[in-house]
Amino acid sequence: MKVIKTYSAKPDEARASRKWYVVDAEGKTLGRLASQVARIIMGKHKPIYTPHVDCGDHVIVVNAQKIRVTGDKMTEKMYQRHSMYSSGYKEERLRDLLQRRPEKVIRAAVWGMIPHGRLGRQMIKKLKVYGGPEHKHAAQKPQPLEVET
């Protein structure tokens, strides 16, 4: 009888095989883009995926300001934050946040799709989001990544 052993990636092996990808968010739907980006930064697209090891790749998202949303989310969806001071609660519509800080919208959407804990905080650092078409990671030679809309 042949015994098949389960493979578990080691942190050093996972770090050595990291790639950089660049995604153009122009015209892409927010949730669909975020789920595919989350899958890549978690490493679920790799055969060496191990849930307790960060084996994902780096993702650069450009043109975050030009994302699409379905329905009335542009005016109805609200983002909340609190400064921890009394009366420090703030709410902002998606439309206004996209104009002011478009990076926050995509980062919040991806954060909701990865683990919330020490490993998730490590994974979210591999996500770089820019509102315009320019990014400062040309030295890493990122490969273009096409996501389905």
CATH fold topology:
Ribosomal Protein L13p, Chain: A
Count of runs of 4 or more consecutive helical residues: 6
**What would CATH call the architecture?**
Alpha-Beta Complex
Portion of residues in helices? 25-40%
What structural category characterises the helix and strand content? alpha/beta
Tell me the number of structural domains: 1
Strand order in space, largest sheet:
5-2-1-6
CATH secondary-structure class: Alpha Beta
- What is the 3D shape? globular
- In N-to-C order, the SSE pattern is HEHEHEEHHHEE
pLDDT average, as an integer? 94
Strand runs, count: 6
Distance between the amino and carboxyl termini: 46 Å
**Main sheet summary:** 4 strands, parallel
Poorly predicted runs: none
Q: Strand content of the residues, in percent? A: 15-25%
Rg is 17 Å
The CATH fourth-level homologous superfamily: Ribosomal protein L13
Which features does this protein show?
149 residues, alpha/beta, two-stranded antiparallel sheet, Ribosomal Protein L13p, Chain: A, four-stranded parallel sheet, globular, single chain
